[in-house]
Amino acid sequence: MQIPSRLAVNAGVVAIMGVALSVVPGIARQRAAATMAKAANEFVSSLTAEQRAKAVHPLASPEWTRWNFIPASMFPRNGISFKELNQAQRQRAHDLMKAGLSQSGYTTAASVMQLENVLREMEGPSATAGAPPAPAPQAAAPAAVADQPAAAGAGARGEGGQRGGGRGAGRGGDGGGAAPVVRDPELYYLTVFGDPAAKGAWGWRLEGHHVSLRFAIDNGRMLVSSTPQFIGSNPAEVPYGYGPYTGLRVLAAQEDAARALLLALDSKAQAIALVAPKPRGFASGTTVKFDPQTPVGLAAAQMSSKHRDMLMKLIDSYASIMPADIAAERMARIKAAGIDKIMFAWSGAIEKGQQYQYQVQGPTFLIEHNNTQNNGNHIHAVWRDFNGDFGRDVLAEHMAALPH
Predict the structure, then answer these.
(1) Strand 298-299 and strand 274-276: pairing?
(2) What is the Cα–Cα distance from 298 to 210, expressed in whole angstroms?
(3) In sequence order, what are the beta bridge partners of 344?
């Protein structure tokens, strides 16, 4: 009897693993897509006809790619706000959030929403909990909208003028003498695009101050896309004096993992990773299509295995905001594109509590994390997919009519 060679055996094992790996993601996609479709259908069914007219939009609409992360009083949203929902409808809305996010991701998003209460107390009478602003016309998103006022000193104040020092330390408003910024944890908007019950394409999003999450789903092929993914935190750390919120750091994992990686590098590698003494800007903004930038910083190929593991842990802190199924697919795509090609770059101060920025860029994605407002106590963090934002990879044929 002929004994198969080790090479043949290994090839067979690889082939079997290839089949297994191709099947498991398909099951994962099916589970994630089905869970979101069920939750979206139940949410839409709970709405009145008038509410559905606000909450449901066509997928092939410019509204699909209109996005931002500044307060709704500065950038009015279309969709339906939590403020307009009764208790039962709010439960359905939260069920939809839970369907599209991991447990930790849901807690993160809900905590960001609750920080509006902290900001309202910090900013005093100038920050109100008002009614939803008038809906904006359906139009393509601007090339970029800064999350800060245009007035002098805007970089220190952040959007709405809060300085992040202590109780009543700042003032509301957009920095230019306009109406005060509305701080209200109920001014977050859900929008469903298309028909979740159909076999074709549909999507949904959650937007408001420092939360911009969207999902494109192809029910027929059971595919899910989930970028751009934006989460911010103001304050990055809630100062003493705000009751149960005191000390809260919503994005602690994303900040701490990056700083731990930087500090773990030897002096030579750290010098490569540190690309500027002052924080770099937020490059991707709110553009609809964002292309790869010139790579800067330290390549994973230049890291030890320990430091590469720390880099992947950092990336996973963003991916794991999504359900395990979607997060695993994201990480698998990153690894397939080549871990060695991923670049890590830090600019600004290393010490906690100071202004800094870092980015992680691979062949297919960019993570930007910026903490430069409110004296280094105001984080913006985004994941952009160069080919997949707004479901362009998953729903290519459906997205042809949308702006580029």
Answers:
(1) unpaired
(2) 29
(3) 298, 360
pLDDT digits (tens, 9 = 90+) for 20-56: 333 344 555 578 889 999 999 999 999 999 999 999 9
CB 371 within 8 A of CB 355: yes
Q: Which two tokens stand for residue 352?
A: 């906690």
Average pLDDT over residues 131-147: 47
> What totals of helices (H) and strands (E) does the chain contain, helices first?
9, 13
Which has the closest alpha carbon to 381: 211, 162, 156? 211
Assign 255 to helix, strand or coil: helix
Q: Are 324 and 232 in contact (CB under 8 A)?
A: no
d(CA 382, CA 83): 26
Give the DSSP letter string of 22-71. Answer: HHHHHHHHHHHHHHHHHHHHHHHHHS-HHHHHHHEE-SSSGGGG----S-
Closest CA to 402 of 45, 65, 55: 65
Q: How high is the pLDDT of residue 268?
A: 98
Between 103-123 and 87-100, two packed helices, what is the crossing angle to 10 degrees? 120
Q: Which amino acid is at 201?
A: A
Does pLDDT of 259 surpass 80? yes
Are the beta carbons of 176 and 67 closer than 8 angstroms?
no
CB neighbour list of residue 113: distance below 8 Å, 6 or more residues apart: 185, 188, 208, 211
- Over residues 321-365, the pLDDT tens digits come to 999 999 999 999 999 999 999 999 999 999 999 999 999 999 999
